[in-house]
Structure formats: structure tokens, C-alpha cells
Amino acid sequence: MNPTPVVSEIDLNADGRHAGFLRLPHSVHRSAYGFIPVPIISVKRGSGPCVVLMAGNHGDEYEGQVALAKLARHLDPDTIEGQVIILPAANTPAVCAGLRTSPLDEGNLNRSFPGNPRGTPTEIIADYLERDLFKRADYLLDLHSGGSSLVYLPTALVDRGHNAVDNRRRLDIVRALGLPWALIFDRDADGPYATSAVTRQGGLGLTVELGGGGAVTPAILSMIETGLHQYLAHLGVIKHAGDGLLDSDCHEEPTLLMIKDDTQYVYARTAGVFEPAVELGVAVRAGQLAGRIHTPETPWQASAECHFECDGIVICRRAMARSLPGDCLFQLGCHLPGDYLIIN
User: Fold this and answer.
1) What burial class does residue 247 get, using C-beta atoms within 10 Å of its C-beta: 0-12 exposed, 13-18 middle, 19+ buried?
2) Do residues 190 and 124 lie in contact, with contact meaning Cβ atoms separated by under 8 Å?
């Protein structure tokens, strides 16, 4: 494999707080010898775990970007036992454009791992993260939201482990984060996602979905800011969470859900204006009305009804009203069978 062209301005092995850019060479008409500046912050002391905190994997998902930018300014090296590496704008071109994908190459970073050091800008970023940065990581927390097109309940996305001990460890991390919902996946370790990439490098990755709709919700932002400190305290990287000691018994149990098949998604089948019939967080039944697609430009035409295909909890809803065939309108989570996590 060719070496990465990405160069870090900071020494990731050095103790203390260090901030700068990952320089990805990018020669274009307006800047022949330029580079794409991906911001990176390292806060390190001692020999504890290495934790990578990442946002901006998709550029229009803002809650995580804000939370990590604030954490990067305030995390005190004297409270660290280990290392916290913060990437608040991982796919920087997408972040600067406020788009899910990069305007340079249409690259979706969270579908680009393991990447290519001689590929497009997004592929080069993915390659550097997986083959250089994630090699350091014992843990990865990848902060997402519904972006411009979707709104999510505050939900942890958890890849199912191989045994009871592994799953208990993962659920303990979810409890420390303090999010009220958790969605369990059977995700391929060879997949194109950031969590797949860190798994291939020997670490444990977790994704969270935090609101969305192209905005920042104060309540959800506050929830994840608290959750970040509790997460780091649970992993032993910081000594305390917020203003007090972390008490693992103080958190409510998250509602555990799963993705089992495509019937948990509702898609638009006609173009028009989407009118949802249910709110986030409600329980629905198979056959229940999910929403309608209206055509105001031909108001004499009957609206098209959409229905849920299975029972579940509404965890995600389309934020945009105007929709095209194939646009996702809803995602459901289904309750887990009793033995699904093998933790009895």
C-alpha cells in the first residue's frame, strides 16, 4: 500500500494539548500548491486509552461538530490519563459546504473506508483515518445526526458483538453516554463505515445519531455534551464527568431496539409534499398510516398514502417536506428478542 499523502501538523505522540491541521495536498486552479486543512486536536497525558472523537463525517450534521469544537477548547490535559484525539470536521470540504457529501468529489466519507491513498480527496481522508489514525485508537465515537433530510431521536448505534461479554461491554458504554435509545445492528466488519474501519484496526467503535433537520437542538446538544464527559470517564480517560464523579447507577436504561430488515423503512413512491401522520418516538403497527404525499401543483389529484410494513418505534423521520420517489420518510426500530445480545 502506498503511504498516505496526508501530513499532520501536530505530533500525536506528544503530551499536552496540540491543535493544527491534517494537510491533504490539493492542487487546483486557484491554488496550485494548496492543501485541504482537516482540523485535529490532541490532548494527551500518561499512558491510558486512546479515544478518537469524530464529527463532520457528514458535513450537514451539526450537533456533533458543535459539541466537539466546544470540548476541544475546554478539555484540560491535566485531567487526562491517556489521549483524546478530536476531529470536529472529518470531511472538511463537506463541512464547509454544509453538505452530506464532499463538493470536491461527491464523496460520502462514511461509505468510503478503507479508502485509497491515491484516490479522491474523500478516499484519501478515509485511508488516513483507517490506516494511520485509527491504528492508535482503542475507542472511536462517531457523532452523527439526521443531517438536512432527516431527524433522529438521540440514539446510539451499536454493532452487535460476538459474545455476552463483548455485548455487555458495549452496552455499558451506551449507558455511560446517557442517550435514551440504542439501535443494535448486525454490521459487516468489512463494511465501508468508520466503525467498521476502527474494528479492523482492533478498536471499538460506536456511532450516535443526534437530532438533525439541518439545525442544532439545544436539548440534544446539552445531552451529548454531558454524555461525552461521562463516556470519557467511563473509559478511564478523565477522572470525572462534569462537576461530579461518574455514577454508573445514575443513568436510566436505554430502550434497546434493532434493525432486522428493510420493512422497517418507509419510502416515498411518488413526488410531492410529505405530510407525516405520526411523531418521533411513538409505537406504530403494521398497516398503520405513516403519512401522505400531496401534489399542490395538481390539487385535484388524490394524495398518495404511505403505510408502515411492520410494528416498531419511530426513531427517524424525514425533515424535508418536498420528496421524490425513493426518499426515506421513516425508520423504525424493533424490540429485541430476549436472547439477541446473549447476555442472559
Assistant:
1) exposed
2) no
Amino acid identity, position 340 = Y
The tens digit of pLDDT for each residue in 291-323 reads 999 999 999 999 999 999 999 999 999 999 999
d(CA 200, CA 184): 19
The residue that leads in pLDDT, 224 or 2, is 224
What pTM did the predictor assign?
0.94
CATH architecture of 262-334: Beta Barrel (2.40)
> Beta strand 150-159 with 181-185: parallel, antiparallel or unpaired?
parallel
Residue 323 and residue 273 in contact, taking contact as beta carbons nearer than 8 Å: yes
* Residue 212 in grid coordinates: 438533525
The cell for 88 is: 470536529
Q: What is the CATH number of domain 7-258?
A: 3.40.630.10
* Amino acid residing at 231: Y
**Cα 109 vs. chain centroid, distance in angstroms?**
11
Contacts of 245 (CB under 8 A, 6+ apart): none
Q: Where are the domains of the chain?
A: 7-258, 262-334
